[in-house]
Amino acid sequence: MTTSLIVFAVCAALAIVSAIGVVASRNPVYSALFLLGNLLTMAVMFAALNAHFLAVAQIIVYAGAIMVLFLFVIMLLNVKTEERASPLLVVIGGLAAVSFGAALLKSYAAIAHVALPAGAVTGSNNGTVKALGLDLFTNYVFPFEVASLLIIAAIVGAVMLSQKLRPHGPDKTLAAQVVKPQEQGVK
Amino acid sequence: MPLPTQDIPIEMLYVGLSAILFSIGAFGFILRRSSILAFMCVELMLNAANLALVGFSQRAQNLDGQIAVFFVMVVAAAEAAVGLAIIISVFRATRSIETSESALLRW
């Protein structure tokens, strides 16, 4: 058993267990922490697959930013523990997921052994910052710039959506907003 | 499924793992009723797809798959920001984040 196979086995076990934990925990905070474990395992697997930049980006973007967002929303909304789903839904969902997974694995088994065509090999496979950056800023510079537009749209959308709804304008007049009379204020 | 595992390259094992993780995420998406949990399961599925892309990228010795993963991360971050803002505003309107409660648009 080689080292890479051991790394794969440990990561696979951790990833599957934490994914089941996300789905099965009734407390949403536990789900979020299981998701965090899954994302970190995913980063380890990226590193094992020579995708070094993506491993770091995974930790910063997912485990850092997105998880904080999730936990903030869970605590902001005070999400309660969910009651257990109905057994019928579990059976139907389980059947759907198992058949879907079987279809995926069947098509996977068809390609797992296939050798690459001779022309497909391009050489570099090291996903270092330098290699990825070179590719990103030459061949993929247009999608990269479009991504900035997307992020601007997301920022504006998030700010707009999380504003308080005030259909009739401000609640109070300016004068009513002043709580203390002026002579009681700080001189 | 009878798979002779000796001659499968290691990166293709990761692709197989990603199929399993994607199915778990899809199952959770069907099962969970709180929209924030459904959202987490979407993140699970996105990550499984990312893992498959990186695995194929390593298999083909080609960086294009990793570039695709980079853009998936960008889109997922934008999606998380907007999606959680939508969940908050739905909660403000209906005082609930159950997916079955927000049936305003159902005909």
Helical amount of chain B: over 70%
CATH class group of chain B? Mainly Alpha
The tally of strands of chain B reads 0
* Annotated CATH topology of chain B: Helix Hairpins
Quote the beta fraction of chain B: under 5%
Tally of helical segments of chain A: 7
Please give the count of helices of chain B: 3
Superfamily (CATH H level) name of the domain at 8-82 in chain A: NADH-ubiquinone/plastoquinone oxidoreductase chain 6, subunit NuoJ
CATH topology of the domain at 8-82 in chain A: Four Helix Bundle (Hemerythrin (Met), subunit A)
Gist of the model:
The complex is a heterodimer of chains A (187) and B (107). Chain A has 7 helices and no strands.
Question: Can you lay out the helices and strands and say which pair or pack?
Answer:
The complex is a heterodimer of chains A (187) and B (107).
Chain A lengths: L2 H22 L3 H21 L3 H26 L9 H25 L17 H10 L2 H21 L12 H4 L10
Chain B lengths: L9 H22 L3 H26 L3 H31 L13
Helix pairs in contact in B: 1-2, 2-3
Observed structural traits:
heterodimer; A: 187 residues; mainly alpha; 7 helices; B: 107 residues; elongated
Could you please describe the fold and organization of this structure?
The complex is a heterodimer of chains A (187) and B (107). Chain A has helices at 3-24, 28-48, 52-77, 87-111, 129-138, 141-161, 174-177. With 187 residues, chain A is mainly alpha-helical. Among the domains of chain A are: 8-82, Four Helix Bundle (Hemerythrin (Met), subunit A), CATH 1.20.120; 128-163. In chain A, helix 1 (3-24) packs antiparallel against helix 2 and helix 2 (28-48) runs antiparallel to helix 3 (52-77). The longest helix of chain A has 26 residues, at 52-77. Chain B has 107 residues and is mainly alpha-helical. Chain B has one domain: Helix Hairpins. Helices cover 74% and strands 0% of the residues of chain B. In chain B, helix 1 (10-31) packs antiparallel against helix 2 (35-60) and helix 2 packs antiparallel against helix 3. The model of chain B has no long low-confidence stretch (mean pLDDT 86). The chains are: A mainly alpha (187), B mainly alpha (107). At the A-B interface, helix 1, helix 2, helix 3, helix 4 and helix 5 of A face helix 1, helix 2 and helix 3 of B.
